Every structure is written in C-alpha cells, then in structure tokens.
C-alpha cells in the first residue's frame, strides 16, 4: 500500500487558495473562480450525481456531525470532486450543480471559539448547498439557514458562485457567520484566514451581506468587541473580532503576497484584504498562472540546490491534490471546469463540461452511492497502486518530478503548453457545435460534450503514463553519462 501522509505536527498544515473575479472584471463577462485544494494524504475521484426525488419526512445525516436535517422534495444533479483519505475528509470536496452553482472551501485557522468541538454540521454544509441551490445567492441563503438552525463545528470560508455572482461565506464554530458578495468589478483572493472585515449591518436587503442574528451579541458578550461609540457598530471587524492574532501564519502571509503581487502586477495588498477593484480584466489563463505559482524563494534555493522542489510555501504546493478554474457559461451545460490534478504544475488543465452525461473512464473508482456511504470509512486498499485508475498515473508523474524538478520541468511544461493550447483553441468550436446540435437534439449535444471531455481526459492520462517513463529513462541516461565522464 502506498502511503503519503504529511507530518502535520512537524510541518504545520497549510491549505487551499481561492480566487473569485467579478463578472465585469473578466474577459468572459461572467464570474470566474479559481481554486487549489490542498489536503495531505488524499486521493481524488469524480462522480456525477443525478437529480433525485425524496419522500415526505425524509431526513439526512452525515457521519461527521450530529445534525439530523430535513430533506427537501427534490435535490439537484451535480458534479462531485471527492477527496478520500484514511481519516475521512469533511472539508475538501468540490461541487458544481446542474444550475451552474459551484462550492469550494478554504480551511481557516482557529477562531476564538476553540476548535475540536463536535456536533452540528461539517461536511453536510457544502453538499446540501450543491444539492439545493439554484443560484449562488440561494446557496448563501441555504447555508445561512442551516448554520443558524444546526450549528457548525469548524472555522471555514466557502466560495459559493454562479455566472453572475461570487459570494464568500465565512463561518465559525457555533451558529455565527458572515457572507459578503465580491463586487462585479472586483477580484478576491483568500489563503486560509478570515477575510471579511467591516460588515454593513444596515444591508437588510442583502445586496452585499448576510450575517447571523447573534453575530454582534456573541462578540459583545465574550468581550471580543467593544464599539468606539455606543450603539455604532460601523467599526466592527469580523476577521479581527473572531480571529485576531490567530491568523499570523507565515504560509498564509507568503501565499497572500504571492497571489496579490500577480493580481496587481506591482506590490501585494495588506494581509487579510477581502477584495480590490480589479486593475484589469482577467481570463482563465490568468487564474491558471496564479494557481500554478510557486513560492518566491524558489530561484534562490535553486542556486544552492538545483534539485530543490518549488513546493514549499507557494500556491501550487506539496499538499495540492486538485486545481480548477470554473469558466461559467450562459447556459449551465457549457460551463467548463478546467481541472488539473494532483498539482497544476505537472498536469494540463482539462475541460470537464457540466453537461456531460458520463464520466471519463478511469476517473471514478466506484459509484457515488458507494462513495458517500464510505466517505468517512475509507478502505486502506483504495490506496494501493491501480493501473486502471487515472489518478495513479498523475500521482506517479508528480512524485518522479519531485526527485529533480528542474531536470523534468522543461519537457513536462512544454508538453502541457501544447496540450492546453490545442484545448483552448478547440473550446469555442465545441461550444458552437453544442449550441447548434442542441437546437434539434439536446441528447446528442450532451453526448458531444461527454465524448470530447472523455477524449481529452484519456489523452492526458496516457500522456502522464508515457511521460513518467520517459523522464525515468532521461534521468537514467543523464546519470550514466555523468558517471561515464568520470571513467
């Protein structure tokens, strides 16, 4: 059995990165979302879950929480990116549903409410948003109602988005949360701390904010916040009130600087900035570049050790298990999840259309029903190498590169650039073909998306296998040439 568990005591765990760009600040005219999921010891598989009808009185409960939640009459169909670990992953999975609503999250360092509290909800929140939301705004409202009713046992930031709106929903242990909309002309980046600062408590129409009923009273009663002027809460700062100095973690600060420097093109913004007015328009390629970026000290390390890995404190990290850029379309079926795994610097971003009817072969180990039932009770046998699963080809390639990243990167990055250029050029042609075919046969139109997605996924899998072999041969030849030169 292959084990790849990180020593989280010796090396403090640092997690995901998320970028949201408002629709007026993108080249597409729709919201863009970029996300790196970072979870040591995880493997990833994909699922398609169909729309389902549920009986009156039906409830749902997840193994990591105590909440018994009333089921709704009908749940949405959705794509599910599942992260499986031997300990069970409550806070990693990504979703995008048939209405074009996406959900990803970032772990946030401890709030003033102590971590480790069990009960209420954890994993349930993301999944129920995907199952029930018809828009990003409705997703926020669903999350708010669930947290207020059932409670939550972690500190986390959710990105809940559709083509028109991007929302950040930040929740702490208990029943308190704040949600803020990323402005249409803004761009947002978050590593792993709370970023919502001043809350507009007068926004009763929820144009830009939602917040829990007890948010203020909880802070006041615990002595975490005292307004400068009695009755005036305009100086309330959610992030500092509920987290304060707990967020002083070097990895967060360095990743924040790295991302914002690329976004602004100049200097990084102050730490824990929620969003800024976009200095220009951003496209899919811009977000890919940021999500692939390595930490600033890499070039200095290479001067002393040419084999040094770049995956220390960058955005593309040693713990990255999936990267995605969600390119929303005007119709949900054409929304394209540009997906790379495990790390985006060693794999091409592949087009996974929301409208597909079947998953590419080898990217799902077993069905969604079995996966949900075993999500918190994973069989260790799943972590044995299996050549029939695409995951292992990419896993092998990334590990081979880590032995001598600089030696491998020219070939790997050159191949990726060519593959992505071809897929980028093909996308508008595929989109147009889908639109024309859908006018007469929606079924065949979706089959087109299914076949194209599968073809690209298969091509990338074969490339990963072949490239791993070629890199081993190349490195062996280089070593033999070196030793022969010493004869």
TrEMBL record:
It is an enzyme of class 3 (hydrolase). Its EC number is 3.4.-.-. The lineage of its organism: Bacteria, Bacillati, Bacillota, Clostridia, Eubacteriales. It catalyses: an L-aminoacyl-L-amino acid + H2O = 2 an L-alpha-amino acid. It comes from the Bacteria. InterPro entries: Peptidase_C69 (IPR005322). Belongs to the peptidase C69 family. It comes from Hydrogenoanaerobacterium saccharovorans. This is Dipeptidase. The keyword Glycoprotein does not apply. Keywords: Dipeptidase, Hydrolase, Protease. The keyword Cell membrane does not apply. It holds the Pfam family Peptidase_C69.
